[in-house]
C-alpha cells in the first residue's frame, strides 16, 4: 500500500469541480461536484439521529436502490435539514438539474448539504451553480483539491487522502475528501465524507467494507458530543482499474478494506484535529482490555470528557479526569491496575502506575502536552484487546464560533 497525493480525483475516471454560488458565504467557493465518467456501484452510511436532513433521506434511497451513481452535488452553508417536503423537493430539483447539465440519469445523482439547520436552500443559486460545475469539471488533483475546499464550513483546512494498492496485478486507487469541525460525534460515520475508487467490486462487498470500517474510524471521533442531522459517508466504485471483481470475504476484499481503512482513519483524524477552536489532536488508546467493546467504550468516554479536553487545552496533566471518565463509561475495570502514559513528539511519560500517580515531572508533562498531536494510553491489564479514539482539546474559541454560528 502506498499513500499518494490527491483526494476524490486520484482514482481513474473521476472528475470534480467547485464554484462560488453565494448560498451563504461570500468570497469563497461553496458548491462542489464529483463526477464519474461511468456509473458507479455505491455504498453509504448515514446519521442515526432521528432528525435526518433531506439529503440523507435522498441518498439512502438511491444507495439502497442499487442505481448506478454518476454524480454527487454538495453545497456548504445551508444543511437542508428540518425543511419538510420542500427540502425533499429541493433534493429532487438538484438531481434533475445535475442530470440535465451532465446528460446522465437523475436516479444516479447523490446530493449533500452542510451548514445551518432549518434554512431553505436558495434553489436558483444552486441550479446556476450546477451549470458552472458541469462546465468546469475536470480530472486532475487540483480539481479534487478545490472540491475539498468548497465543502468546508467552520473547517480551517481541507481534508483529503489517497492510497494505491495492487489487486490481481492491477493498480487500484482509493481517494477521499471530508469535512467536519463542529457537531462531530458520529454514530455511523462523520459529517460529510466522499470516497472514490476505481476498483471493480460487488455492491455487497463495497457496503460491508464501508459499514465495517466506520466502526473503527469515523465512529471513534468526537469534537463536541453532537451527532449531526446530516452525517453521511459515501463510497463509489467505478471499476475502471480493470481488476477482477472483488467479492466479500475474499483475500482481495481484505486488501481493499485495509486500504479503505487507511483513507477513512486519516480523514477521521484530520476532522478530530480540526475541531472548532482546537489547538491539538487528542488520541486515546485503551490497551489490555478483555473485549473490543470494552476498549472502545473506555477510549470514547475519555475523548468525550469536556474536563479532560479542557485540561489538554491547558497542557495540564490532570490525569484524575481521565480516570474519572473511564469510571463513568459504564464498563467495569479495576482502577487500581491502570497504567497511564502521555506521549507526543516531545517524549513519553508514565503518569500513573496501578492507579496511583508516579513521581513524574509536571514540567516534562506540560512539554509533552504542548504539542499539536497528543496521545494518552491507558493499560487496564485485563486482556489482549485494544481500541483508539480521537478528539481534540476544548478552548474558548469553540464557544466564540458557535455562539453566533447562524449570523
From TrEMBL:
<feature type="binding site">
    <location>
        <position position="153"/>
    </location>
    <ligand>
        <name>substrate</name>
    </ligand>
</feature>
<feature type="binding site">
    <location>
        <position position="190"/>
    </location>
    <ligand>
        <name>substrate</name>
    </ligand>
</feature>
<comment type="pathway">
    <text>Amino-acid biosynthesis; L-arginine biosynthesis; N(2)-acetyl-L-ornithine from L-glutamate: step 1/4.</text>
</comment>
<keyword id="KW-0963">Cytoplasm</keyword>
<feature type="site" description="Involved in the stabilization of negative charge on the oxyanion by the formation of the oxyanion hole">
    <location>
        <position position="114"/>
    </location>
</feature>
<feature type="site" description="Involved in the stabilization of negative charge on the oxyanion by the formation of the oxyanion hole">
    <location>
        <position position="115"/>
    </location>
</feature>
<comment type="subunit">
    <text>Heterotetramer of two alpha and two beta chains.</text>
</comment>
<dbReference type="GO" id="GO:0004358">
    <property type="term" value="F:L-glutamate N-acetyltransferase activity, acting on acetyl-L-ornithine as donor"/>
</dbReference>
<feature type="binding site">
    <location>
        <position position="276"/>
    </location>
    <ligand>
        <name>substrate</name>
    </ligand>
</feature>
<keyword id="KW-0808">Transferase</keyword>
<keyword id="KW-0055">Arginine biosynthesis</keyword>
<feature type="binding site">
    <location>
        <position position="407"/>
    </location>
    <ligand>
        <name>substrate</name>
    </ligand>
</feature>
<keyword id="KW-0511">Multifunctional enzyme</keyword>
<comment type="similarity">
    <text>Belongs to the ArgJ family.</text>
</comment>
<feature type="binding site">
    <location>
        <position position="179"/>
    </location>
    <ligand>
        <name>substrate</name>
    </ligand>
</feature>
<dbReference type="InterPro" id="IPR002813">
    <property type="entry name" value="Arg_biosynth_ArgJ"/>
</dbReference>
<feature type="binding site">
    <location>
        <position position="402"/>
    </location>
    <ligand>
        <name>substrate</name>
    </ligand>
</feature>
<dbReference type="InterPro" id="IPR016117">
    <property type="entry name" value="ArgJ-like_dom_sf"/>
</dbReference>
<protein>
    <recommendedName>
        <fullName>Arginine biosynthesis bifunctional protein ArgJ</fullName>
        <ecNumber>2.3.1.35</ecNumber>
        <ecNumber>2.3.1.1</ecNumber>
    </recommendedName>
</protein>
<comment type="function">
    <text>Catalyzes two activities which are involved in the cyclic version of arginine biosynthesis: the synthesis of N-acetylglutamate from glutamate and acetyl-CoA as the acetyl donor, and of ornithine by transacetylation between N(2)-acetylornithine and glutamate.</text>
</comment>
<dbReference type="GO" id="GO:0004042">
    <property type="term" value="F:L-glutamate N-acetyltransferase activity"/>
</dbReference>
<feature type="active site" description="Nucleophile">
    <location>
        <position position="190"/>
    </location>
</feature>
<comment type="pathway">
    <text>Amino-acid biosynthesis; L-arginine biosynthesis; L-ornithine and N-acetyl-L-glutamate from L-glutamate and N(2)-acetyl-L-ornithine (cyclic): step 1/1.</text>
</comment>
<dbReference type="GO" id="GO:0006592">
    <property type="term" value="P:ornithine biosynthetic process"/>
</dbReference>
<dbReference type="GO" id="GO:0006526">
    <property type="term" value="P:L-arginine biosynthetic process"/>
</dbReference>
<keyword id="KW-0012">Acyltransferase</keyword>
<dbReference type="GO" id="GO:0005737">
    <property type="term" value="C:cytoplasm"/>
</dbReference>
<dbReference type="InterPro" id="IPR042195">
    <property type="entry name" value="ArgJ_beta_C"/>
</dbReference>
<keyword id="KW-0068">Autocatalytic cleavage</keyword>
<dbReference type="Pfam" id="PF01960">
    <property type="entry name" value="ArgJ"/>
</dbReference>
<keyword id="KW-0028">Amino-acid biosynthesis</keyword>
Amino acid at each position: 500500500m502506498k499513500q499518494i497525493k490527491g483526494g476524490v480525483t486520484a482514482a481513474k475516471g473521476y472528475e470534480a469541480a467547485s464554484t462560488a454560488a453565494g448560498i451563504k458565504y461570500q468570497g469563497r467557493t461553496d458548491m462542489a461536484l464529483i463526477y464519474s465518467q461511468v456509473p458507479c456501484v455505491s455504498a453509504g452510511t448515514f446519521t442515526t439521529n432521528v432528525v435526518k436532513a433531506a439529503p440523507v433521506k435522498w441518498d439512502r434511497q438511491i444507495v439502497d436502490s442499487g442505481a448506478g451513481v454518476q454524480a454527487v452535488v454538495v453545497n456548504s452553508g445551508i444543511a437542508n435539514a428540518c425543511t419538510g417536503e420542500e427540502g425533499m423537493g429541493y433534493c429532487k430539483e438538484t438531481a434533475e438539474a445535475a442530470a440535465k447539465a451532465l446528460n446522465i440519469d437523475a436516479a444516479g445523482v447523490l446530493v449533500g448539504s452542510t451548514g445551518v439547520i432549518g434554512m431553505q436552500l436558495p434553489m436558483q443559486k444552486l441550479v446556476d451553480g450546477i451549470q458552472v460545475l458541469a462546465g468546469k469539471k475536470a480530472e486532475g488533483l487540483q480539481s479534487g483539491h478545490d472540491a475539498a475546499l468548497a465543502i468546508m464550513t467552520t473547517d480551517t483546512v481541507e481534508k483529503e487522502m489517497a492510497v494505491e494498492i495492487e489487486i490481481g496485478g492491477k493498480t487500484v486507487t482509493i481517494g477521499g475528501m471530508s469535512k467536519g469541525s463542529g457537531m462531530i460525534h458520529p454514530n455511523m460515520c462523520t459529517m460529510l465524507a466522499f470516497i472514490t475508487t476505481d476498483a471493480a467490486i460487488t455492491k455487497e462487498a463495497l457496503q460491508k467494507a464501508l459499514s465495517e470500517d466506520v466502526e473503527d474510524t469515523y465512529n471513534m471521533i468526537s469534537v463536541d458530543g453532537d451527532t449531526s442531522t446530516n452525517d453521511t459517508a459515501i463510497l463509489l466504485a467505478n471499476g475502471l482499474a480493470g481488476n477482477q471483481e472483488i467479492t466479500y470475504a475474499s483475500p482481495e476484499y481484505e486488501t481493499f478494506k485495509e486500504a479503505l481503512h487507511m483513507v477513512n482513519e486519516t480523514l477521521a483524524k484530520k476532522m478530530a484535529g480540526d475541531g472548532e477552536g482546537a489547538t491539538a489532536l487528542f488520541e486515546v488508546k485503551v490497551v489490555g482490555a478483555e473485549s473490543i467493546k470494552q476498549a472502545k467504550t473506555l477510549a470514547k468516554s475519555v475523548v468525550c470528557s469536556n474536563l479532560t479536553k479542557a485540561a489538554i487545552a491547558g497542557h495540564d496533566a490532570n490525569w484524575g479526569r481521565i480516570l474519572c471518565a473511564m469510571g463513568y463509561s459504564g464498563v467495569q475495570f479495576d482502577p487500581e491496575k491502570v497504567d497511564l502514559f502521555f506521549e507526543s513528539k516531545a517524549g513519553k511519560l508514565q503518569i500513573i502506575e496501578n492507579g496511583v500517580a508516579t513521581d513524574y515531572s509536571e514540567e516534562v508533562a506540560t512539554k509533552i502536552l504542548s504539542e499539536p498531536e497528543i496521545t494518552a494510553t491507558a493499560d487496564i491489564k485485563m486482556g489482549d484487546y485494544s481500541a483508539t479514539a480521537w478528539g481534540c482539546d476544548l478552548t474558548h474559541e469553540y464557544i466564540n464560533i458557535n455562539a453566533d454560528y447562524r449570523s
